[in-house]
Design brief:
- The chain is an alpha+beta fold and about 160 residues long.
- About 25% of the residues lie in helices and about 25% in strands.
- The chain has two domains: about 70 residues, Immunoglobulin-like (Sandwich), CATH 2.60.40; about 70 residues, no CATH class.
- The strands form two sheets. Strands 1-6-5 form a three-stranded antiparallel beta sheet, with no helix packed on it.
- The protein is elongated.
């Protein structure tokens, strides 16, 4: 979801006051105050310009760019030669991922095991809970009857008719 870019700056650029950096949703421009163009190009995909920022340290320009869409980029700038993404090992140990990503991977693994055993997945369990609540909701054609989800697929009533 983000790109962190490091650009080696010319030696005459001593501070951030010597730079003019423009980050737009589809392009980037970096110029020295003397007018020399360091980078001026379009991006292969859109970024969130308002959530992106830059700083300068030790002769380098650091840019943090927030992507609009989660995806691998095969280059930063459209003028660059694309790299072959198939040659990159994108795998990481599970422990290196953020906690919420680990939880999602574990849920996917759990669901895969459930599917193989013919048991309901977490989404199917959640959907069944919603159906159970709607079963006896005011206006439900099933109000007062014992919950039987097979009725929903065998009758003229559709799941979409709840709450409409």
């Amino acid at each position: 979801m983000e790109l962190d870019v490091i650009v080696k700056l010319p030696p005459d650029v001593k501070s951030s006051k010597d730079l003019k950096v423009t980050i737009n949703t589809g392009d980037i421009s970096v110029a020295a105050i003397n007018g020399d163009i360091i980078i001026k190009d379009t991006l292969p995909y859109k970024i969130k310009a308002m959530d992106s920022f830059w700083s300068m340290t030790g002769g380098n320009l650091l840019m943090h760019l927030e992507k609009v869409q989660e995806r691998w980029w095969n280059r930063l700038l459209n003028s660059e030669t694309p790299i072959d993404l198939d040659k990159i090992d994108c795998s990481r140990p599970l422990d290196d991922l953020p906690e919420d990503h680990v939880a999602k991977v574990r849920e996917l693994q759990w669901n895969q095991e459930r599917k193989m055993k013919g048991l309901p997945t977490s989404d199917e369990i959640r959907n069944m809970d919603v159906l159970k609540k709607a079963w006896n909701a005011p206006g439900s054609p099933f109000m007062g009857q014992e919950f039987d989800p097979s009725v929903l697929s065998n009758s003229s009533h559709t799941i979409g008719s709840f709450g409409h």
